Amino acid sequence: MFDVNSSVLFWFAGVVILFVLLQSVFFLVKALKRAKELNMPKKKIKQIISGAAVFTIAPAISIILGMISLSKFLGLPLPWLRLSVLGALTYELTAASTAASVLDIPLDQPIADAAAYTTISWVMALGIISGIVVIALFLPKMQKNLIKMKSKDERWSKLLIDALFMGMISAFLGMIFSEIRLGLRGWIPVFVMFFSALLMLICGLIVKKTRSKWLESYAMPISLLGGMAFSIPITMLIG
Fold first, then answer.
1. Chain centre to alpha carbon of residue 163
2. Of 1, 11, 2, whose CA–CA distance to 77 is shortest?
3. What is the spatial distance between Cα 161 and Cα 157, in angstroms, rounded to a whole number?
4. 114-152 and 77-85 helices cross at what angle (nearest 10)?
5. Is the Cβ–Cβ distance between 111 and 117 less than 8 Å?
6. In the chain, N or C: fewer CB atoms in 10 Å?
């Protein structure tokens, strides 16, 4: 019988994640050597390293929560691999749950069919690979054209960037409003979104009023974790 938590899957995921960790160590060493070549103060280097380390804590918590959610039906190896290396919680959860719903697979128990597990894995992988291909093949040319456009018409360049950003946001808004027809229960994602936006607004006001520039780096994690925390009581309240 197929097991989503098979030791073989853990080994495969572990090897890939170990390779990524080694890459991180390699570039950290290279960066330290380059900093020494530029005669950067040791205190400044330590501040950069500690700041980056602290900044990863809040996003890591949200990733762990997402991994727990996915592990209910996908087991631990695949979500661990996806969310540790490449995938984002918003994409992985959506792709996996959508594929599972098409296959009529419940999301509250481990998948027992190897074919269904493989199908969901391929959906998660192929759905995100387009971004990698576009970045690898076309990003330099896209950046060059954007710089060229900005030099000719800075106002139009800003409008284009804003339009692209709003297009991305619209895709997520579709998921948030997709179940409002179900009644008050379908509005839970909307309430969570507004609460997260409120937290972001509060952080922005604090930064503006108190000149606490350090808070700018933590505004997004605070909004993200606050929204996730808020989703628990409001879901229990509305049902």
1. 21
2. 11
3. 6
4. 10
5. yes
6. N
Nearest residue to 124 via CA among 78, 59, 174, 66:
78
DSSP secondary structure of 113-152: -HHHHHHHHHHHHHHHHHHHHHHHHHHHHHHHHHHHHHHH
Read off the pTM.
0.69
Q: Pick from 236, 239, 197, 187: which is nearest to 219 by CA?
A: 197
List pLDDT tens digits, range 29-81.
998 899 888 888 888 888 788 777 766 776 677 778 778 888 888 999 998 88
Non-local (6+) Cβ contacts of 76 within 8 A are 4, 5, 10, 67
Q: Which helix (H) or strand (E) holds 55?
A: helix 42-55
- Tell me which residue of 132, 105, 130 sits closest to 120, measured CA to CA: 105
**Contact between 132 and 85 (Cβ < 8 Å):** no
How far is the C-alpha of 108 from the C-alpha of 74, rounded, in Å?
10
Question: Residue for token digits 């995100």?
Answer: 128
